[in-house]
Amino acid sequence: MKRKKLIGLVVSLTIVVLLIGVTLKDEVFKEELKPAMIELANGSKKIVYDTKLMNFDKTSTTFEKYKGKVLVVNFWASWCGPCQDEVPDLKAFYNQKGDNVELLAINATANDSYNSVLKFLENYKLNFPIFLDGDGTLQKSFEVINYPTTFIFDAEGALKYTIKGQTNQQELKKVISEI
Asked: Which of the two ends of the chain, N or C, has the fewest CB atoms closer than 10 A to its terminal CB?
């Protein structure tokens, strides 16, 4: 009887130690989320150019590739009605934008699926850069809570405008002309 109690105690202690170890490991080795946008001392926000971006073809790049341009960063999802409605305006804007402006569309892949994105791209024949946010880190860093959401950064990377909800070509042109 004492032997069974001893074995039960040893097994229980082993399980407790393993659970504590797993918990501590997760805390000790937790990868800190590197923000894609930071807040400066004066309260303004700025893009972090070395943030990794996953292209639709699953190659990677960074915002650095677009440094020196006005950036229009649009977060969207294939199932989002307003996102679908704004696509013709985004395409028209992209086709008429100047060389100093770039439109980057970041899909909320953490809340979407690769296949749905592929169908969306095929249906709408998108011709601007599409990126995937598979784990939601970009959305978290940009504090995106609804789709679509569009951020407009000046050529130095300072956030100038945030548009929550659907936008159109005229609004984007107007906002960019004010930068």
From this structure: N
